[in-house]
Amino acid sequence: MLTVETADRVTILAPTIDRLDAANAAAFRLQVDAHLALGSRVLLDLEKIQFLDSTGLGVILGIFRQLKGSGGELRLCRPGPHVQTLFRMVRLGSKIPVHADRTEALAAFAAPPAA
User: Fold this and answer.
1) Are 109 and 75 a contacting pair, CB within 8 Å?
2) Is the separation of the CB atoms in 45 and 19 below 8 Å?
3) Strand, helix or coil at 11?
4) d(CA 10, CA 1)
5) pLDDT for position 7
6) CB 8 within 8 Å of CB 41
7) Pick from 50, 53, 54, 45: which is nearest to 15 by CA?
8) Are strands 51-52 and 19-20 parallel, antiparallel or unpaired?
9) What's the CA gap between 43 and 70, in Å, rounded?
10) Contact, 55 vs 25, CB < 8 A?
11) Which one, of 24, 107, 40, lies nearest residue 74 by Cα?
C-alpha cells in the first residue's frame, strides 16, 4: 500500500494503490502514521493514485495538519489528472505545495523559507 524512501532528510511516501478512498483511507493513514516523526519533512508522491475521494482528501489534509502542528512540512508531487482537478476545485495548492515531480519537490524542501 505504501513504499518509503529517504532523500536529503525528506521522507518520501509513495502509495502503491491506485485509489485513496473510503475503502482504504484508514489503513493507508495507519501506514503513513508509522513514518511520521516529530518535525519531519514528508513528500507524498501521488503518481499511482488515479482516484481520490473526499475521504482520501481528508487523509491528506490530516497528514498536513499533523506535520504542521509538530513543526514539520508536507509537500505533494506527481498528481494525476483526476487528482489535479480535485486539488484545483478545493484549492488545496494554496495550503499544501504541489510539485510536478520529485526533483522539484526535494529542491523546494532545500530552499530557504520565504521571508
Assistant:
1) yes
2) no
3) strand
4) 19
5) 94
6) no
7) 45
8) parallel
9) 16
10) yes
11) 40
Could you confirm whether domain 2-110 is CATH 3.40.50.2000?
Answer: no
Amino acid at 27: A
Tell me which H or E stretch contains 7.
strand 2-7
Distance CA 66, CA 71 (A): 9
- From the list 100, 60, 102, the residue with the least C-alpha distance to 80 is 100
Domain ranges of the chain: 2-110
Q: How many CA atoms lie within 13 A of 48 on its CB side?
A: 13
- pTM for the model stands at 0.93
Phi-psi region of 29 (alpha: psi -120 to 50; beta: other; left: phi over 0): alpha
Can you read off the three cell numbers belonging to residue 4? Answer: 518509503
Bridge-partner residues for 75, per DSSP?
Answer: 43
Half-sphere exposure of 93 (CA within 13 A, CB side): 13
pLDDT of 10-57, one tens digit each? 999 999 999 999 999 999 999 999 999 766 999 999 999 999 999 999
